From TrEMBL:
GO cellular component, one term: plasma membrane
Chain ranges of the ABC transporter domain: 11-258
Highest taxon of the lineage: Bacteria
UniProtKB keywords: ATP-binding, Nucleotide-binding, Transport
Protein name: Dipeptide ABC transporter ATP-binding protein
GO molecular function, one term: ATP binding
Topology of this chain in the membrane: Peripheral membrane protein
Organism phylogeny: Bacteria, Pseudomonadati, Pseudomonadota, Alphaproteobacteria, Rhodobacterales
InterPro entries, A to Z: AAA+_ATPase (IPR003593), ABC_transp_ATP-bind (IPR050319), ABC_transporter-like_ATP-bd (IPR003439), ABC_transporter-like_CS (IPR017871), Oligopep_ABC_C (IPR013563), P-loop_NTPase (IPR027417)
CDD domains: ABC_NikE_OppD_transporters
UniProt source species: Pseudooceanicola sediminis
Length: 333
């Protein structure tokens, strides 16, 4: 990669949003569900942005937007210096590839491993001679730690970790610049998780890949991330470097999430904050801070106004990130 490319973000999202129309019928209007609202971030080559949050916060929708599987309903997306528009994305498709949580579901079980990895080349590089394609597949298999004899085997003959290696090889064969990793180790045994995470870290260093790493598991995020974006109900509520967010979480929701994660140093004090109440329906997001009803620091202002994501490098969407020290009254488990 040239120096200029190394200094250009591989992906930049500005106010990216995705609404869905849900329900509605002959006698009622559909409702609008904001699955992702106003997400802004960028990822440089060789860096990992982790997107974290509980189920339903919009992580997978964000993954589908960045991989151009779905079009945004608002905001802009720029991939490797090119603005993505509905009419002009197909030439950028190979720049961004995705690895899903469940390699069993994402691989075609009727095909042999060699063909599974080769298929994107057959579709996207029809002029590439077969011999060159096979050589490329074999090279990628070696890169992800697979043996040459695996070429002719079927996915069902492999363990979950090996199948995830096949999925990673398939994602890499078109030489993308960005990998969207959607919970890539969540379906694997703990002992295998670290092998796959270390493989991803190694591949990133060698190929200067940018990663958008989607995970609900903060121990995994602590292992792989450079930067972190915490999402709640489709909105980013905190962004910053991994060090900043883990050492000094500013948003109460991030504090609660982190308090539920095993500490790097188990001797450190650990008090688990127990969130009150339920996640509001995404169809009825409160007008002020979307976290207000579950927040132990809540003030009148929080229910009336929506806080912006504020700060320098470490931002939080909270009116009182450190102003009101109510940590002592946080509900603990
Ligand atoms: N195609 C769709 N039509 C309507 N609503 C959708 C659609 N896709 C997602 N949603 C809604 O958007 C919100 C965000 O969903 P999304 O799957 O992105 O969350 P998530 O954080 O990835 O959750 P999970 O970890 O459970 O997959 C949810 O309320 C979901 O029901």
């Amino acid at each position: 990669m040239t120096d200029a490319l190394l200094q250009t973000p591989v992906v930049t999202a500005d106010n990216l949003s995705r609404d869905y129309e849900v329900g509605g019928g002959a006698f009622s209007k559909p409702q609008i569900l904001s699955a992702v609202s106003g997400a802004s971030f960028s990822v440089m080559p060789g860096r990992t942005l982790a997107v974290v949050g509980e189920s339903g916060c919009g992580k997978s929708t964000l993954a589908r937007l960045v991989t151009m599987i779905e079009t945004p309903t608002g905001g802009t997306l720029n991939i490797a210096g090119n603005d993505v528009t509905p009419d002009d994305w197909s030439n950028l498709r190979s720049t961004v590839q995705i690895v899903f949580q469940n390699p069993y579901g994402s691989l075609n079980l009727r095909h042999r491993v060699g063909y599974i990895i080769e298929e994107p080349l057959i579709i996207n590089r029809p002029d590439m001679p077969k011999k060159e394609r096979v050589a490329r597949v074999r090279e990628i298999m070696q890169l992800v730690g697979m043996r040459p004899e695996h070429y002719d085997r079927y996915p069902h003959m492999f363990s979950g970790g090996q199948r995830q290696r096949i999925a990673i090889a398939r994602a890499l064969v078109l030489e993308p610049k960005l990998l969207v990793l959607d919970e890539p180790v969540s379906a694997l045994d703990l002992s295998i998780q670290s092998q796959i995470l270390n493989l991803l870290i190694d591949l990133q260093e060698r190929l200067q890949l940018a990663y958008l790493f989607i995970s609900h598991d903060l121990s995994v995020v602590r292992h792989v991330a450079d930067d972190v974006m915490v999402m709640y109900l489709g909105r980013a509520v905190e962004t910053g470097s991994k060090e900043e967010v883990f050492a000094n979480p500013r948003h109460p929701y991030t504090k609660a999430l982190l308090s539920a994660t095993p500490k790097a140093d188990p001797r450190g004090a650990s008090t688990r904050i127990r969130l009150q109440g339920e996640l509001p329906s995404p169809l009825a997001i409160p007008p002020g801070c979307p976290f207000a009803e579950r927040c132990w620091k809540v003030q009148d202002k929080c229910r009336a106004e929506r806080p912006a994501l504020d700060g320098d490098s470490h931002k939080a969407a909270c009116f009182f990130p450190e102003g009101i020290d109510a940590e002592a009254s946080a509900p603990v488990a």
